[in-house]
Design brief:
single chain, mainly beta, twelve-stranded antiparallel beta barrel, two-stranded antiparallel ribbon, 3 helices, disordered N terminus, LOR_sf, LOR
Length: 262
């Protein structure tokens, strides 16, 4: 894929002073991984920590993600994901809507997601069809409402909370090697009443934004009957697999709140 100039979200030391700048994209170096150098999961100072962070969000919170999927899935040079949920069909062997995840509407898939059991079980696949990870949906639980596993090991559990009319998510990462878990390593907060826009932070740092691109304005969005299409903006160094899974979970929550089948 041809490299280009992209707008990257680069937070300042104070979350109120975030700014956006344009930076040229250079090839990824294993010795100088952008995930390690510019990680949004680096430990913030105590004065900058978001109040919902219950365990310090250090780079270690994402070590299990990096170890499982490798640095090839860092979001460099990719900065945008196009996440499209499919229509439900009885013809398919999958009883639920899948997803196509790409870098633009016209580009080939970066990932595909197959759904089974009405969305209770999903598998994220590479373009070659190889399974990358699994997503389990626990319908009756707000805690661990979604669970991301790889080779049978739990990596991320995602909680859901409805605050008034807003949808909020938080992700806990699990390190199977050390046995340690990092609560609220990622926090996703809806920025509009209708659940169509989200900011995702690691500590005070916004590393991902998600926006529904095909919803009606205002109250009309409550009557949406077509699957949502999402535009995901990523800061440099964010993990693409984690970003894809978070977008799928957000799409799930959006679909449930708008009352159409997943």
């Amino acid at each position: 894929m041809q490299a280009s100039l992209s707008q990257l979200i680069v937070p300042g030391p104070d979350p109120r002073n975030r700014h956006i700048h344009t930076s040229p994209i250079s090839p990824v170096s294993r010795e100088h991984s952008p995930f390690r150098e510019r990680s949004p999961f680096r430990d913030p100072s105590p004065s900058l920590r978001h109040p919902s962070i219950t365990t310090t969000a250090t780079t270690g919170a994402m070590d299990s993600i990096t170890h499982a999927f490798g640095e090839d899935y860092d979001s460099h040079p990719f900065t945008t994901l196009h996440v499209e949920q499919s229509y439900f069909t009885w013809v398919s062997r999958n009883t639920g809507r899948g997803f196509k995840i790409s870098t633009s509407p016209s580009s080939p898939p970066l990932f595909t997601v197959q759904s089974q059991n009405w969305g209770k079980h999903r598998t994220l696949h590479s373009p070659s069809g190889a399974p990358i990870c699994e997503i389990k949906r626990n319908w009756l639980s707000k805690h661990s409402a979604w669970e991301l596993s790889h080779n049978g090991e739990l990596l991320v559990s995602i909680n859901i909370e409805w605050l008034r009319t807003h949808i909020n998510l938080s992700a806990t990462t699990h390190d199977s090697v050390t046995g340690q878990k990092y609560d609220s390593a990622v926090v996703a907060e809806a920025t509009d009443v209708w659940g169509g826009k989200f900011n995702l932070r690691a500590g005070p740092r916004t590393f991902m934004t998600v926006k529904c691109g095909n919803m009606s304005e205002g109250w009309k969005s409550a009557f949406k009957v077509s699957p949502p299409i999402w535009e995901v903006q990523l800061a440099e160094g964010a993990n693409l697999v984690l970003a894809a899974v978070l977008a799928v979970c957000i799409s799930d929550a959006y679909s449930e709140s708008h009352g159409f089948m997943l």
